[in-house]
Design goal:
9-stranded mixed sheet; globular; 8 helices; Rossmann fold; alpha/beta
Amino acid sequence: MDNQVVVRAYRDAVRVPGAPAPHDTVHLTVRHPALPASTDAQRMSGMLEVDRTRAPHPVVVVLGGVNVASAGYTWLAVELVRSGFVAVTYDWVGELFPGQVGLTPGVDVGVATPEAYGSAPTTPALRPLLDRLHQLNGSGALAGMLDLTRVVLLGHSAGGTVALQSASSDWFPELSAVVTYGSHLMASTQLGFAPDTIVESPATVPVLLVSGAQDGVVRASAVRYGQSGDDTTHDPVLRTWSEALSHSKEAWLAVISGAGHLLVSTPEDQSSARGFLETPLTADQDELRQTFIGLLTAFLGTHVLQLPAAQADLDHYFSTPPLHFAELRRR
């Protein structure tokens, strides 16, 4: 990781076909390496030239949680750029459920039913977003910066769920890997699924599932899946790893001790999302974020950048789990 990299943001927007106005626009931010300011015009405008020294860069698309603004993932995007990627975050104010509007990673409820699941991606945001990135890569300030043959989906909470549900190489041949935090594939009974149902991910690429041992949001959500909120054995992330990733050529599970549901989004917006469901966290969350980044960069360095040193780091995680991991598994 190169902390000397200058990271800047390019902002754009794209329409989602079929979404009703005014809730039909995704606003995206593309963070990329840049050259230091060298002219008065650059210093006054803040518009810095992109650094094409190592272009094109693989792309990580961050799919956020429900009512979690993309600003909370800025730190994560910066870390990814310093590690050799271009990072894309987005905000979409749209329909969450009938009659409810908020920040969404994009969820097509009609496709997420027992009758339709597996027929199409459950997020309608991803295809238009990737198509827009292809356009930006063809001309303009970001031309040639993006390696869109190597795309990673990095989803948090509901964003991770739709990433796992949508990660078919038939739908998105650009995919190289999927990473999630605080996400799983238990299916809601409100959508018509039987209690305790796990749906299968179509992902064939390597998958890394990460969760926090103190995730109060996932624990409190057990009632959505026909389970008791008091059931301490409820672990949908573990079940997703063991039951729902049969197509993936490699699947990792990592549980971080002391981490809560919103670890990857900071600072937390306490007026939004559901962080109020968690008990006070005593562990140093900044330290745990660095724990997450260490594993993430080793995983992506191995499977996307194909760096031998990253492979050695990843193997070391498995053979000698570092401090802060309550559990590490792979298959």
